[in-house]
Amino acid sequence: MIGYSSLATGLTAKEKSLLGIGVFPGFRDYFNKVANDADPDATHWCVVENGGTVKVENDQAAPSGFCSCQSLAVNDNDAIACTKDLIDFNIKEPVTTIHFESRVNFDWSSNTGDVCGIGFILYLYAIVDMDAFINGWDAAAIVVHNDVPTAYSDAGGASDTTDLSAFITDNTWFDLDIAISATAVNFYINGILRATHETNVPSSGWQIAFGSTCENAANESTKVEYVEVWGE
Questions:
Q1: Would you say residue 1 has pLDDT above 60?
Q2: Taking residues 178-206, what's their average pLDDT?
Q3: Cα atoms in the Cβ-side hemisphere of radius 13 Å centred on 79
Q4: Within a domain: 14
Q5: Is 7 helix (H, G, I), strand (E, B) or coil?
Q6: How many domains does the chain contain in total?
Q7: Burial 116-130 (b: 16+ CB within 10 A, else e)
Q8: Angle at 102 (CA atoms; ends 101, 107), nearest 5 degrees
Q9: At a CB cut-off of 8 Å and minimum separation 6, what does 61 contact?
Q10: What average pLDDT does this structure show over 147-152?
Q11: Residue 83 counted as domain residue
Q12: Residue 179 is part of a domain; what is its CATH number?
């Protein structure tokens, strides 16, 4: 008979976290628990629909279980999903690193401004548009800014940024991993480290957020196929 401790010993830090037996109680959502075209599970998610639409695509006519945030073609329309007031993620002893993994598709339609984004942002911040990620709050995110997918990190003041346009293409799915420790934020795209920020590293509690904001009267959307947050 295999004991509980023996089984746990053979698991990775990610597996332990997502099973709730590691140093950090992990979070996972595949957006497959609600009806097609419904909001994401209200147990975990809040939505902001300022003229835009947030809905889960969970039917047989599309890949099951992804959340679509579409701002539609009216300037300043927003469509955002976030975990504010429901889940707070942070680094506490003995946690050394928190990972935010997801599969993402940005469709930014060649527009200016901050039109698509996904990542961690200060837990207390009420997000109303994609400018939120670069407004000087604790954040670690990827935002499409003036046609350029950009890695942002902020510790409540100045930001570190890295151009990721060589690795992220308009309307193309990619795998994302944002890893925050006490000393650095690492951004992995499709499993490869593409940016490291060590100057402005966020250290507060965070919420997850993703979505789109309309610029230049064109459709923008952020699609997210799954979300996994785990610690080690």
A1: no
A2: 96
A3: 28
A4: no
A5: helix
A6: 1
A7: bbbbbbbbebebebb
A8: 140
A9: none
A10: 95
A11: yes
A12: 2.60.120.200
